[in-house]
Design goal:
heterodimer, A: 110 residues, mainly beta, six-stranded mixed beta sheet, globular, B: mainly beta
């Protein structure tokens, strides 16, 4: 399995930035890095993905280390609706093989 | 646009009974996935379909689990007979096509409780 390591839980104050780290030291050159999040009682939803360069979208930013052995998901201003479990995933092979870990449970404090 | 639809949302059965879950993916999505999610864990892939072909079922416990996607659209996952350890959330997801690291769209899941 393509392994990722994330902290079990993190806290953030509302309207402050959040940096969610992920280690993936066994990543290979063609593996993409994906982030999904899962709100309570819902299926996971896509947040962002990238290969080598940093990526930005309306939800978040993804910062990828130069050696690609780690990455950081950045939520620029946390809201209460961002409280969820965030999964860092490597997709390998054809790109459809996702290996979810246990994720990081983010608590947003009002 | 409708998302991935799953039914039922909740199911409670006695052990040794059969159970089936249904999934309708997003229209036009060729790839369909079934995942199992235990409490406090991330989803684990059970089976992946490309159209009607199961291209990865290595994690499907074939002694009691079966799945089908006969016309390459909706899919059914069956457990017969169910065991206590099968209590979990069963998630269905779909994506446009393979080979391009496409976004997977997940349904809300079916929460199975086996008594």
């Amino acid at each position: 399995d393509a392994k990722t390591t994330q902290p079990n839980s993190m806290e953030s104050n509302e309207e402050e930035p959040v940096h969610l780290p992920c280690n993936h030291s066994t990543i290979s050159g063609t593996d993409y890095i994906h982030w999904y999040r899962q709100l309570p009682s819902q299926g996971p939803e896509y947040v962002i993905h990238g290969l080598t360069s940093n990526v930005n979208n309306r939800m978040a930013s993804l910062a990828i280390a130069e050696d690609r052995k780690s990455s950081t998901l950045i939520l620029h201003r946390a809201t209460l609706r961002d409280a969820a479990v965030y999964y860092c995933i490597l997709s390998i092979g054809t790109g459809n093989q996702f290996y979810f870990g246990t994720g990081t449970s983010l608590t947003v404090i009002p | 646009e409708a998302g991935v639809v799953q039914s039922p949302r909740y199911k409670i059965i006695e052990k040794k009974q059969p159970v089936a879950f249904w999934c309708n993916p997003i229209s036009g999505h060729n790839t369909l996935y079934w995942y199992l999610q235990n409490l406090g864990q991330g989803p684990e892939l059970l089976i992946r379909y490309e159209n009607e072909e199961a291209v990865d079922d290595s994690q499907l416990p074939k002694d009691r689990f079966s799945a089908e996607r006969l016309k390459g659209v909706d899919s059914t996952l069956k457990i017969q007979p169910a065991e206590l350890g099968d209590s979990a959330v069963y998630l269905c997801a779909s994506s446009e096509r393979t080979g391009t690291h496409n976004e997977q769209f997940f349904g809300p899941g079916t929460r199975l409780t086996v008594l």
